[in-house]
Amino acid sequence: MNRKIFIKTFGCQMNEYDSNRILDTVKKIEFIKTEKLEEANCYLLNTCHIRDKAKEKVYHEIGRVKKSFRLKKKPLVIVTGCVAQAENDEMLKREPFIDLVIGPQSYHKINEKIKQFLDRQKKIDETEFDTISKFNFLNKIKNTSNKVSTFLTIQEGCDKFCHFCVVPYTRGPEYSRTFREIINEAKVLAENGVKEIILLGQNVNAYNDKNYNLSNLILEIEKIPQIKRIRYTTSHPKDMTDDLIKVYGISKKLMPLIHLPVQSGSDKILKLMNRKHSVKDYIKIYEKLKKINSAIEFSSDFIISYPGEEVEDFDHTVELIEKIKFINSYSFIFSPRPGTVAENLKLIDKKTSMERLTKIQNKLSENQIEMHKSLKNKIINVLVENFTEDKTKLFGRSEYMTSVVFDGKKDDIGKIVPVKILQSNRSTLFGEKHINSNQKVA
Ligand code: SAM
Ligand code: SF4
Ligand code: F3S
Description:
- The protein is of the alpha/beta class.
- Helices cover 35% and strands 22% of the residues.
- It is built from 14 helices and 22 strands.
- A six-stranded parallel beta sheet has the order 2-1-3-4-5-6, sandwiched between helices. A five-stranded mixed β-barrel has the order 18-19-20-22-21. A three-stranded parallel beta sheet has the order 7-10-13, sandwiched between helices.
- Strand 3 (42-47), helix 2 (54-68) and strand 4 (76-80) form a beta-alpha-beta unit.
- The relative contact order is 0.08.
- S-adenosylmethionine (SAM) binds at residues 12, 50-51, 164-165, 167, 202-203, 234, 236, 261, 263, 301, 303, 332, 334-335, 337.
């Protein structure tokens, strides 16, 4: 008889990919997905440790689930992801409602660990780094994702050790899957009906398998006829090689938006962060890409108020934003992470940090709003993903990942359709499907 598993996912796209691969895996021991917490026999929380009170958020969430099962049989409770890796057996000690703690490199053992627990009722902590075995196992389990736009992990882990970041400790050293395995998975996804593949890695452009790198992968996936769009995230400026830059001039399917986190516009801060690139390096990449295709746009991540950030450092970040005109970017106030080099540095006061964050976010919004306004009455290509939640309209994405909402038919889902933009706000473009084929696509 099928049992039901409810998965809640925090954090980055890789956690989303992992949650889906966990679902594909537990099917083998007859667990099927449910969207209703109250009917779950198993509750799995896939956690993120990147900022703020990540750990407390997890215990709070578990407390909420515990409450809702007060009068019912307790589900099997599993914590996975980066908090699980960082906290391991501490979690079992602190919260008896948790039964299994499984780190990101041990997901291939999940069925075995669930069975062991159900047989013996003994709490289990499984947080070894065993990436090769994990992917060897997952390669044999079909990826069943059939979403129009789907993630595909090609690389995991990080050897860069930026002083603020917990990822090298929670995801382990850099590991690249083999070229063949990735192409096989991309073909399976194409057969499932997927139209856009987003290649994932904590340092996706550090991908390396013998003589193959990210540019080879993009050009090979491009040969799969059903796949219409290719993206990758998250890349590091240090690994933005010339051959990858060149692919933007060759590929027909690689989208013209590059997410390239810079973190700060000040060389002094980049050095303190141990980022291994300068502002000049970053601008050079920008100029090379713009020369190949002037329509390429950049998005980025920024850390505000990193310890040591003075007014002039902050001003350099503002200047960089004005120069590059980033779209779709993220900005966060520095959050000290346990176990990192920056854990105990002197923090910049809250008021100053909030003022700086607001200024940066307003600047980033201005760029976004300006770009959206410039699209009024223009026709853009939209890959249609689904209906909107209220089912009245269709939802898709522009080549720059912007959400587009428009009137259309069910048949349009999974296709790239021309949409005339009529209105916009900061995050979304609104329009209508364009019928007259004589007008040029922007
Ligand atoms: N590998 C990517 C790179 O090199 O930029 C970033 C991966 S990290 C999962 C995503 C973003 O979280 C980072 O780009 C950074 O802006 C932010 N981040 C990481 N640690 C942080 C911290 N301690 N405080 C605030 N933001 C943080
Ligand atoms: Fe974290 Fe830096 Fe590695 Fe990115 S490159 S995952 S920010 S340590
Ligand atoms: Fe969070 Fe781990 Fe991703 S810390 S951002 S879930 S790699």
